């Protein structure tokens, strides 16, 4: 990615340009010390004067009123605030009419900024004051007063806080009185500029120490640049928070949100005093000290998926490169490209007016007696391994190997010495994409799932099929789509999850097809603020899981399908910086503290918590540097971006993915064979948890035996010997730690004694007695086991309820054993009768 800059041969302004601001993606206003405000039309390349300011008015800062005001979205900005050196700020209409001039500060008004709703204005000045004004220019409050000039100001994402500079310090001051402010030393020199993004909630600062820095909203340093040659005079976030720009003397730099630099330009501009991004985030403009206005377009963005690399080479042109056959295609668009996403065999591109959907068609392997040139020796080895696996796993008819995302089906008689196969990805619609018009304005986010994709713009959330059909448009109270990003929205084949920015402890979960809230309609609420969310991509809807990281950097997982009962939210990791689900199987990876971790089967935490640590793959992450980010997790390869922008590719074992495929197809014998071939304890642990989750206790017994969990093998054998299906189901639930569900199942099926005995075995004495008394049975059984328990530990009864029911009751173990045997016999008879009924029904059918 880089910036394509453009400067006129001769500057339009005669003096330095102090500030610039966009009305639309193609129209810019600039202000200069020559007292002129000029309008630049990028479509026609025309420049015209809007108004000439009085000779004693020197403009310093400009900010357009946000386009969405009071819930009404305007097609373009209609007015702006202009601060000046005479201590005033001016409210000026788009046509140049000065609507109001307000005496605001003693000395120059150094900066003025509207909040995101356009309902309040913050100004700062040489007098050291920070003031809040109404939309009409009435003073609401003087937020702060200090002895040094305040050079820059920015609103917090929720418009409830204001960030401003104070010498070398940055200060975050809440608007509410008597709330503690946050203050920290940010630079070694005077801080000249700051910006706060509402989407990623990160802070930029720059100063005379020639550095720019990235902070989180708590004042923690995330990135600090190396010293530049000259002081940094301007910084600005792009609207979506993915990029920011840095300006200095003859310097313009494009950076990723984590701080590392994409590109460095050295234009002949003098100092760049102000930077403004266009509404769609595709270009920026800079106010230059030599009278120029510099324009820069973001080009050479790249998207990768399997063997395709797509590059935006011009504003309206993409290049598609197939690295396997080195084929190159050019995609031309009518309008400039704003957003794009490449995944799941589809390229989705949004321009300023339309959406394009390209489908990548996968061609299966073709047999050939001579190896094609593209096949490397490593691929031959993979094919040999495939044949070896085929023989070991005793496949007789055919087998499939997944290679580079393409499935090749080979007959069982194929051997490496007789055949090679070639593979490729091709598409038949690079020139015939599906095209449809966009409903609202600029698309800010595209998310893809296997079956559909999501477009997010200022108007809402829109879920489309890859055929271009609008599926649904979910909504929730107080929805603000302009501040959503890939960390706060997640999409799967059947579910959409959105983090609420108003209350960051809440996640709204929707059915993707209907757009209605999922389950009982209640949102998912956590105890602390949530930072990042992600839905798993495979499996059934009722098994869909969501993983999220909270403010304490703890990783949790929970089910999204909930009806009435409170769903268990379980912690599976600590100090997790970033996470991602696999695209083809429900594997989860994350970077926690100094380790890179893959949870091969995260659902283990719901089945057997003790097994969770045995289902992990861990790798030292110390060489990833500070604050690495997982880019994607495709197949068995994870791509991680380090803090310096470099990419690291990690390959994990392909066997867990194969195991997931076998289990999802109920191929338990194949799964066992695979584990025996691999001979890895992690694989056996995963299979054990998967088998219990799917209630296949025979496979679970084999898997637990292979990892030496003898006590669990014995319990599984006990479960298999139980007389009725209901008892077996209840004890499988108990095995997974679901005590309440097990008891409920037994009670619903009339197995009262078994429910009482379960509570006795778990030492839930009060509940056991409560059930016995309620159903008027086995009270003496509960008292007997309680008495034996106390005698074993040399204790005396102190529970009043047990003392009450024990009065006058003599424990007769022979009588109790006879009753228990009678209950077991009844259960056997019931199970046999049920089996007879099922058999007769089958015969009649």
Automatic annotation (TrEMBL):
- InterPro entries per the record? Beta-prop_IFT80_2nd, TPR_IFT80_172_dom, WD40/YVTN_repeat-like_dom_sf, WD40_repeat_dom_sf, WD40_rpt
IFT80 second beta-propeller domain sequence ranges: 300-360, 423-655
Enumerate the Gene3D superfamilies for this protein.
1.25.40.470, YVTN repeat-like/Quinoprotein amine dehydrogenase
Q: Name one Pfam family in it.
A: Beta-prop_IFT80_2nd
GO BP term (any one): odontoblast differentiation
IFT80/172/WDR35 TPR domain sequence ranges: 683-829
Spell out the residue ranges that the record assigns to WD repeats. Answer: 102-134, 184-216
GO CC annotation, single: cilium
Q: Does the keyword Nucleotide-binding apply?
A: no
Keyword terms, alphabetized: Cell projection, Cilium, Cytoplasm, Cytoskeleton, Repeat, WD repeat
Q: Indicate whether Cytoplasm appears among the record's keywords.
A: yes
From what superkingdom does this record's organism come? Answer: Eukaryota
Q: What is its main location?
A: cytoplasm
Where are the bilayer-spanning segments? Answer: none
| Subcellular location as annotated | Cytoplasm, Cytoskeleton, Cilium axoneme; Cytoplasm, Cytoskeleton, Cilium basal body
Function recorded in the entry:
Component of the intraflagellar transport (IFT) complex B, which is essential for the development and maintenance of motile and sensory cilia.
**What is annotated about its quaternary structure and interactions?**
Component of the IFT complex B, at least composed of IFT20, IFT22, IFT25, IFT27, IFT46, IFT52, TRAF3IP1/IFT54, IFT57, IFT74, IFT80, IFT81, and IFT88. Interacts with IFT88. Interacts with IFT57 and IFT70B.
Q: What is this protein called?
A: Intraflagellar transport protein 80 homolog
* Gene name, Swiss-Prot/TrEMBL: IFT80
